[in-house]
Amino acid sequence: MNMEYTFLAASRSPDDSAWLQETLAPLGQVLKSADTLDELLALIEVTNASVVFIGIDRDHMVAQCALIEGLLEARPLLVVVGLGDGYDNQLVISAMRAGARDFISYGMRSSEVLGLVRRLTQRLPQLPVHREQGEFTLLYGVQPDVDAALVASQLALGIQAGGVSTLLVDLGLPAGESLVMLGVEASFSFGDALRNLRRLDSGLIESAFCQHPGGLRVLALSEGDTPLSASSSAELFLLLGALRQNFEHIVLNLCGQPDTDALRTCINNANRLYWYLDQGVSTCRRNLERLQSWRGKGVKLESAKLLVDRYISTVAPDAATLARTLELPLAASLPGSPALRLRARNQGQALSQLAPHDALTRSLQRLVGRRKATASWREGALGWLSSLLGGRA
User: Fold this and answer.
1) Residue 244: which H helix or E strand, with range?
2) Which residues pair with 307 in a beta bridge?
3) Looking at the chain, which residues constitute the CATH 3.40.50.2300 domain(s)?
4) How many CB atoms lie within 10 A of CB 166?
5) Residues 236 and 250 sit within 8 Å (Cβ to Cβ)
6) How many percent of the chain have pLDDT more than 70?
7) d(CA 316, CA 322)
8) Contact 175, 220 (CB under 8 A)
9) What residues pair up with 167 in beta bridges, in sequence order?
10) What pLDDT, on a 0 to 100 scale, did the predictor assign at position 384?
11) Hey, which CATH number is domain 135-378, 3.40.50.150, 3.90.1150.10, 3.40.50.720, 3.40.50.300?
12) For residues 293 and 283, what is the distance between their CA atoms, to the nearest angstrom?
């Protein structure tokens, strides 16, 4: 069984973390962090990361070596690796004196770096597992689409109706569409959550997050919020980590968001990714380009399945052709039902209330049902395994 690791990278060079991610993709994901002790320690707590890369350069060497010392003082079992110009002996010596386990020089072959980090991970001590986190379902497609918010909202409502505490995080474009579709008003937005990251707990969630009558909590991007592209991947990772410790399931709509480190951080950490599009050829071409780009850069897409919306079976390309072209298994093809969609958006009501027997409603219910079946199978398998191991003890 392959172990997937999360590595942290704190470097003033914007290219370092991207290069490390492409190089270390076979081992896991690389999360970019600010070079501050507080942020690194917070990320270590959430990710359980055991290897941290610290960029070292002449202009900031003293502060960077102090950061290494601070990290190792707080986390003695941590493995710190320096990253910089290996021809500058002073950088290498200073990093090693500060406590770095090894040093990666610019210009090293990717295979050498991968081999070095693989050897380091094989010698890592066994660390305590961090708290169990809720499941994470993500909806993504390249183009902005109001219907993506409708689909995400109905999925989240269906999961909540099954007795699973669920949060809908709507960061799709256009912003805030899910609030209208669910008929709720929000005074606390996604931007507010980022600004209050350090104090985000169950009390703040209970008092500030808006709630649908069915129990679903909603956190949405507002028109006045800073664009997601301006958020750091570390901030977003910390926020999602805090939310997943307070909900059993999170449904995140990211349709239409541009390609950024923050977006890829979400994609990399999804338990289930629905790649959302329609049958338009130009739409399919843009999504295929994004998929190919991410595959080449080591973005984790193993959990991705294709979700074709407003599907017309008599129009080409059909769902099977789209799935083959994008090299994704087909999760579902959702019928158009334009009149029902419009009523749901305008009246702020769930599809199950407006038209429980409509083909669109039934298709979404089947999609929720497959998630439940998968979860039940996992629970049963784990229970069987625990019984088996217990019987052998």
Assistant:
1) helix 233-244
2) 276, 332
3) 5-122
4) 27
5) no
6) 92
7) 9
8) yes
9) 217, 250
10) 38
11) 3.40.50.300
12) 16
